[in-house]
Structures are given as C-alpha cells and as structure tokens.
Amino acid sequence: MNKKLLRIVEGQGEREAGPVAEEKLLAGKPQQLTEHFFTNAKENFFCGVWSSDAGKWKLSYSEDEFCYIIDGEAIITDADGHSERVVMGDAFCIPAGFEGSWETVGSVKKFYAIYEE
C-alpha cells in the first residue's frame, strides 16, 4: 500500500462517465464524470472530482460526504423542501440519511470525500 502523500490532480485519476440513473431523474438528462483518486484499505473512504451538466435527480445518502464546489452551481433540496444554493468556493457536508434532490444549474464540478460505515 502506498504510504506517500497523494496529490489530487485533475486528469490523473480513474475516470468514469455516464448518465444519472433513469430511476433517479426528475428533470433533464444530465451526464456525470467522476475522476476517482483514492480508496482506503478498508474500502469505506473515497475521494476525487465529480462533475455534471444540467439536470435534477433524487438523492438518498447512506454515506457521509464532504464537498467543495470547484466551479458552477447546484441547488440541494432536503425532504422537507428546504433548498440551499451552493456555488464555487462553497464547502459543505451531506450526512448519511439525507433524502432530497440535487439540481445542477448549467454545470458543476466538485471535490468529494466520502465515508461509509
């Protein structure tokens, strides 16, 4: 196992692209790109860069996620209808158990770090 500092440099991760799953879609036909950089030895912590174009879909979190918006904006709405707009420079956490929706306005890109029990 690598025990050295790992720099997150776009274009050097493991890339996966595709649409948001049809059963989650609420609006549009958003395409996502995930560039995965790290998985720990227990396979319960992950980090990388994720991006999407315009669209809206349902969220149901079993994991805790830290996000930092690199570019663009999104609207995150919880199950009670409370919405938060997140834009470039915003950092936030989405806790396990969160239910709601994610709406990408135009396009968005974020750093993510995910922990799952």
UniProtKB/TrEMBL annotation:
UniProt superkingdom: Bacteria
Residue ranges annotated for the (S)-ureidoglycine aminohydrolase cupin domain, each copy included: 41-112
Annotated signal peptide: none
Gene3D superfamilies found in the cross-reference section: Jelly Rolls
A Pfam family: Cupin_3
Protein name per UniProt: (S)-ureidoglycine aminohydrolase cupin domain-containing protein
